[in-house]
Specification:
Layout (H helix, E strand, L loop, with lengths): L1 H20 L3 E8 L2 E3 L2 E4 L5 E7 L5 E7 L12 H7 L8 E3 L2 E2 L9 E3 L4 E6 L5 E6 L11 E6 L1
Parallel strand pairs: 1-4, 3-11
Antiparallel strand pairs: 1-2, 4-9, 5-8, 5-10, 6-9, 7-8, 10-11
């Protein structure tokens, strides 16, 4: 009888742990002209993310995440080839739904979101640290369209 109670308790704990281990971080990021809301995204390393990005601006915007620059980037550094080198999503499998993706899968760099549209990115954050998010379309970054991604 006692053994059955112990085994039953262990089974409940294991099943509950398995259910919580499969949780997904669901986050919504809103794009406006010219900024992100919230300004800071905080994610847990190793836990899958479902990031929904909604463009409430009057023009198209893009989303990318990359190593935090020491200061605001110059026009030369805003080149997508440069961003690809410091891209947060290097070697991270990203599944994008909607929008216009520059590269898919483990080569993901950015996604463009049309006015009034939304996209979803599904990925698991692998690297801890503080990173910048931004829109590199003409003059958007300079107008303040950047924020912070923290992975703990």
């Amino acid at each position: 009888m006692r053994l059955a109670l112990i085994l039953g308790t262990v089974a409940v704990l294991v099943l509950t742990g398995a259910a919580s281990g499969s949780s997904v971080q669901k986050v919504t990021l809103t794009m406006r002209d010219f900024g992100f809301s919230p300004q800071k995204l905080t994610l847990a390393q190793g836990i899958p993310v479902e990031l929904t990005i909604v463009n409430k601006g009057k023009v198209a915007h893009e989303f990318m995440a990359y190593e935090m620059p020491r200061q605001a980037m110059s026009d030369r550094e805003m080149d997508h080839d440069y961003i690809a080198k410091i891209n947060y999503f290097r070697n991270v499998e990203v599944k994008a739904t909607g929008g216009k993706v520059r590269r898919a899968g483990k080569d993901f760099i950015d996604i463009r979101v049309a006015t009034g549209k939304s996209v979803t990115l599904a990925f698991t954050p692998l690297r801890k640290g503080t990173f910048e998010i931004g829109c590199m379309l003409a003059d958007h970054y300079q107008a303040g369209m950047r924020g912070v991604l923290v992975v703990k």
